[in-house]
Write a structure and sequence with these properties.
Helix content is about 45%, strand content about 10%. The protein is α/β, with parallel strands linked by helices. It has a seven-stranded parallel beta sheet. Strand 1, helix 3 and strand 2 form a beta-alpha-beta unit. Helix 3 runs parallel beside helix 12 and helix 6 runs parallel beside helix 7. The N terminus is likely disordered.
Length: about 300
């Protein structure tokens, strides 16, 4: 089964098969057995800079990364749009972006500034942190920006399969979450939706969001709900992270599981962008390590 089939056509078919949505698991709707352990290894932040682009695409073509998402507002987005046209089999989504978190490396909204003024910080960029977005951003401006990012990606020739949220911003407000799921439906994209685990339900409750009810409603409409979403590996050393990933694989449960990684090279560019470049480089090594590839196989 190709990477494109696993995430793109597989989940698209799962959505289309709405008649049996309530009686079949997501894995079954994707063509697997209910007892199969399905892993989506997803790379975030493509488009951020060249180092991230080069390393992430290497992990997709030579490694074990099966799916990824691209940040449209970022300066190196055009490089990823070109790559996507040259690799139509690659499963690329959009990492919908409302924050610009690094110290000196910043970006602005895609929509005209006059149409989304509540999305800007005092320096004229997207805010560095999620709390500022939640405090200041108007839902109608959020919607305008999300649609602008999707439209820009398609104008550049991309054919995105799904959407998710940079830094989880669209999950940090019940109003933003409604915009996120509705825009995804209306633009024919699959929204990344984690299953209602106890931790997620508790976090959503604090936002005034009945996540279990929302997910149930979306599931009834045929949208896929991940069984388990793991947002990152934690160990700061390469060998520790490798051991952590091996443990993760051994403990993987039946169903559709997604693990998010953040990948870059080890070069001057990424070192000037972010202080966490080592973790990103470790995840390039991890996802292209021959031994790790054999574990996954």
């Amino acid at each position: 089964m190709t990477r494109r089939t696993l995430m793109g056509a597989g989940i698209a078919a799962a959505i289309a098969t709405r008649a049996g949505a309530q009686s079949k698991t997501l894995a079954e709707r994707m063509g697997f057995a209910a007892t199969d352990r399905v892993l989506l290894l997803h790379a975030d932040d493509l488009g951020m800079c060249h180092s991230v682009n080069a390393a992430s695409t290497k992990a997709m073509t030579d490694g074990i990364v099966s799916t990824a998402s691209v940040m449209v507002p970022c300066p190196w987005f055009p490089e990823m749009a070109t790559w996507s046209k040259e690799h139509p089999e690659a499963d690329l989504g959009l990492h919908l972006t409302l924050t610009s978190e690094w110290r000196h490396y910043r970006w602005r909204p895609v929509a005209p500034i006059s149409e989304v003024p509540s999305l800007l910080d005092a320096e004229g960029y997207l805010p560095r942190g999620v709390p500022e977005v939640v405090l200041k951003a108007k839902p109608e401006h959020v919607e305008r920006e999300l649609r602008a990012q999707i439209e820009r990606a398609r104008q550049f020739g991309m054919k995105p399969t799904h959407v998710d949220s940079h830094m989880g911003t669209l999950f940090a407000s019940a109003k933003f979450f409604e915009v996120y799921t509705r825009v995804a439906r209306e633009t024919n994209l699959v929204p990344m939706l984690p299953g209602p685990t106890p931790d997620i339900l508790e976090q959503a409750k604090g936002l005034g969001l009945d996540y279990a009810a929302v997910v149930r409603e979306l599931g009834q409409k045929g949208f896929p709900i991940l069984d388990v979403l793991t947002t990152s590996l934690k160990d700061p050393t390469y060998e520790g992270r490798k051991a952590e990933f091996k443990k993760y694989l051994k403990e993987l449960k039946p169903g559709v599981n997604e693990l998010i990684v953040h990948i870059s090279g080890d070069d001057e560019e990424i070192r000037h962008v972010t202080g966490n470049w080592r973790n990103r480089y470790h995840e390039l090594k991890l996802t292209t390590d021959p031994e790790v590839k054999e574990w996954v196989r």
